[in-house]
Structure prediction request, 367 residues.
Amino acid sequence: MTAIPKPRDNPAASLPDDLAQLGERYDAVSRFPSESLDLLVVSGLHRRFAPPEAGGEAFVDEEACNASMLTALGEVGHGDLSVGRLFEGHVNALLLFRWYGSASQKLWLREQLARGAWFGVWASEPHPGVRIAGSESLRLTGGKSFASGAGGIDWSVVTASSEGEARRLVVVCANDPERTDLSGWRVRGMRASVSGSYDLEGVAVTDAMLLGQPGEYDREPRFTAGAWRFCAVQLGGVDALIAETARGMHPKVREDPILRQRFAKAYIAARNARFWVEDAARKAAAEADDAITTARIARGVVEDAGLLAIETAARILGTRSAFDGQRADKIARDLSLYLRQAGPDYARDEAAKAILSREFALSGSLP
Prediction:
């Protein structure tokens, strides 16, 4: 078995570089990135954002926690967006335990993290969705789609509806090969996120598996404002693609004013996006009145920066940007898929409506 590279083995190496190196293998064969996740365990990121009772870091406040999280998510995304997607899902699950977990559930989480277990959050589902059925003996019906890490991660926090109640959260085993179906995950990018489907039909539900109360997953502004976290991962990929484009610019290309201008526009767009993601993280921590709108704006700005970075790489690097084995090609393919997450145009429109209503409300009647 190939040894897992560690930053300590090479002082000049960084976590993103190590993840990028491993990511080339997963992209070629499309498999779960076990070695990359092992590297995150070694780095300390695996449990940093868990509840303190479960071995996580005790941050001074929510803003400090989000600032550290933003850096970590971006660093992992810079190395490999597929791993970043899995890490972001793991962090989301840890936050749900922190916010809604009981003392016994946090103790269980501590035990699982101590053995290196990985978590995810699965909400997407085909009709009619996942439901909690039964009266005395509760069981799940249905399954999840776009279940990142299906069959590879250990546990997932899934949404489930029940009669007469808002949907709630259930912790389920996520690595049963008999319930995992990756046959439909045939994609150009984000291959190692293995976001297949997972069958939950007949899974028994106990009180210990129920996380929080009905409706807590959809609590606002946490639900929508939390989009800043996957924006941070995406932005890490944008920064990586811009850096890769710069590295690939031959001296003659660097003397071309038109290509320099294109590069500058992409660089500025990425820095502008970082401002919005940082602002969204701060406002989410404070649960500010405009936290949701800011997160939605951040999504749109990151999408614009990502699409511009992809185009810029293609124009500056030329055909080299499309060859298998080229890092720029992998990042561009991963970004092109990741940026499609959860209706970006809808998020932009909702942000626009909120801005018009709050800052530019109509007074009186128009002439």
Summary: Residues 209 and 323 are 46 Å apart (CA to CA). Residues 1-12 have pLDDT under 50 and may be disordered. The longest strand covers residues 165-173. The chain has two domains: 13-211, 222-356.
